[in-house]
Amino acid sequence: MQQQTLNTSQMGLQHLATNRRTLNRLFKFVLVDFGFLDHIPFPIMRNALKKNILRAVYLTDGINVYGYAIYQEIPKYGGIHVLYLAIAPEFRSYGLGSVMLRRLDALSPAGILLEVEDPDFSRNEEELSIRTRRIAFYERNGLTLDQTVKLTNFKHPLLLMTTTALPALNERQFRKFYRQLYNRVYRIPVGQIAVNARIEKA
Prior knowledge:
Blueprint: E1 12-15, H1 20-33, H2 42-50, E2 55-60, E3 65-73, E4 80-87, H3 96-107, E5 112-117, H4 125-140, E6 144-153, E7 156-162, H5 171-186, H6 190-194, E8 195-199
Parallel strand pairs: 4-5
Antiparallel strand pairs: 1-2, 2-3, 3-4, 5-7, 6-7, 6-8
Protein name: N-acetyltransferase domain-containing protein
Organism: Sporosarcina ureae
């Protein structure tokens, strides 16, 4: 079957309303795309979205929804921290992940920070391949993998990727910075307990 052509120039980011119906639809998407993250705290996220701590956007042409992202602004750093980003399964071979990142980059010229799953903790070859391809995708789109920072979020091993270098911080300072990101979302003491960071010497 021949692939249809999509007019990406007509696609933009639409911020979501925070009513129950809209958020329930969003969380259904998240559960499908990130079901392997069994810790996803939807009630906490719902509260953070309603308080505008978190923000959610659809990639849309005004008719179809092609993908979504959930992010927060980063205090002091000035960029955005993307917690979740996904393209709808039926549109994943159209290069729309790159379109989404370009739109987010335009939304935040100060930079993007996000986490990816650590390939070193893959349970099988398929998982290793998926995680490696995901990192390569972000690198093609201007993000840099920080090999020295090791993160855990509810015990899930993660790595850090950014479009703009973070200020030089020692391990204690970076752990505080990283936990504060999630403290804003999860609220203390959940973020303090569930989130950790360490820096390995290069």
